[in-house]
Each structure stands twice: as C-alpha cells, then as structure tokens.
C-alpha cells in the first residue's frame, strides 16, 4: 500500500514549533542598573541644570534600569500604550528627587527624565515589573548599593584626583562580588573622568549577577573623580 504523506501535518508541526519559540522567547536577558556621578555630567562642555527642587546630593544618582540582551543589544520603546503615568508613583517622588535627579536643561522637576526612562526602557520589562515596581526596584537597588561609600572606603574620593580604573573596579568587585562596567566621559578641559557605573541584575530585578557583557566604557587607565 502506498504511504501518503500529509503535508498539512508538517505545516501544523512547524507552526507549533514557531509558536513555542515565540512563547519561550525572553523579553530580555538581564538588567543594567546604571548610576551616574553628577559632577561628571555637569563639568562637561554641555553643562547641566539643577532640578527645580534644588541641587542634588553629592552622591551617585540613578540613570536607569535597562533591560538588555546577552549579545549587548537592547530592546527599547516596547509599549506605547503603557506610557509614563506619574500618578502611579506618587509615593516614590520624594525618593526619586533625591536619588534619580534630573540634570538636563532647562531645569525641571525630573518628570521628563523619568518618563523618558520608563517609555524607552521600563516598557521593555513590563512583563516583570509594572510602573510602580520598576521605579521602586531601581530605588531599592540604589539603597542597597552605596557606590560612594564603597569607593570612599577604598580611598577613592570625589576630590578632583586621578585614580586607576582597575582600583575603582576592584573596590566595587570586593564590595558586591561582581565586576562592574565603568563608563567615562570628558570634562571641559578634556580630562577622562568617571561618569557611570553599570551593575548587572537578573531579569527578575532581584539579584545581582555577573554581567554577561560589559559596555565599552571609553575609560583611560587613569581617570579623574571630579567633585560636585
Ligand atoms: P538613555 O536614553 O536612557 O540611554 O539615556 C541617555 C539620555 O539620558 C541622554 O539624552 C542623556 O542626555 C540623558 N540623561 C543622562 N543623564 C541624565 C540626567 N541625570 N538627567 C537628565 N537626563 C539625563
């Protein structure tokens, strides 16, 4: 008897296979939690503006919590139907003003910065963190990882001095157990300086992890830690 091959079964199988790939696909692999030294944002050619609520503390501030892929790329602007709504985070605003201060010009309260971060990055992790949990997770990470304290305990102070990049990395690795990514920029006189510190967090937002990939930080082997 001739065996007839039913191609429609093959099509169905392929369809199911694709569906399972889509369903199993991760939104993102991990988060970069990025903190920024305000002195290094402000002493650049572009300069900065303090928020309407006043000069931020001389401490690292949050730049963002960014969903990322292991290959170094990242998703962005994932859901325009879930745009920033400050009424959802009213209980967090005073902490945000202190720990997630805007430095962009013209001066504003910070909502422009926060809404940019939510719309561009936060919407890409909405399957794990809703708006309130997204901002709260970042604030809690900041409270847990006191970078200024970590660096100062290692004798690395924001005193316009120059420090080796490896000493900065080592101080943080000794304190948190993982190697951070360090990003530098240049001040108005062209000095290479400590700008942002990237720490990796698993895709639930709960645990620090070793970074699957580190950003190209553009740092010299010795960098300035400017005052603020
Ligand atoms: P992102 O788009 O999240 O990758 O961040 C880059 C953008 O954030 C740039 O437009 C920066 O100018 C802006 N930015 C970085 N730090 C701050 C800050 N402290 N306040 C306001 N805007 C900032």
How would you sum up this structure, described in words?
Residues 1-5 and 7-24 have low confidence and may be disordered. The chain has 7 helices and 7 strands. It is α+β, with helices and mostly antiparallel strands and 228 residues long. The termini are far apart. Helix content is 32%, strand content 18%. The longest helix has 18 residues, at 7-24. Strands 1, 2, 4, 5 and 6 form a 5-stranded antiparallel β-sheet that branches. Strands 3-7 form a two-stranded antiparallel sheet. The chain has one domain: Ribonuclease Rh, Chain A (Alpha-Beta Complex). The site of adenosine monophosphate has 11 residues, from strand 2 and helix 4. Keywords: Disulfide bond, Endonuclease, Hydrolase, Lyase, Nuclease, Signal. Residues 1-24 form the signal peptide. InterPro entries: Ribonuclease_T2_eukaryotic (IPR033697), RNase_T2-like (IPR001568), RNase_T2-like_sf (IPR036430), RNase_T2_His_AS_1 (IPR018188), RNase_T2_His_AS_2 (IPR033130).
Residue-averaged pLDDT: 92
Structural class: alpha+beta
Bin the helical content: 25-40%
Largest sheet: 5 strands, antiparallel
Any low-confidence stretches, pLDDT <50, length ≥5?
Answer: 1-5, 7-24
CATH homology superfamily: Ribonuclease T2-like
Order of helices and strands: HEHEHHHHEHEEEE
Beta strand count: 7
Present as ligands are:
adenosine monophosphate
Global Rg: 21 Å
Amount of beta strand: 15-25%
At the first level of CATH, the class is Alpha Beta
From the 3D structure, determine the CATH topology.
Ribonuclease Rh, Chain A
Instruction: Kindly report how far apart the N and C termini lie.
Output: 86 Å
Which geometry do the CA atoms define?
A: globular
Keywords: Disulfide bond, Endonuclease, Hydrolase, Lyase, Nuclease, Signal
Active site: 63, 117, 121
Pfam family, one: Ribonuclease_T2
Family: Belongs to the RNase T2 family.
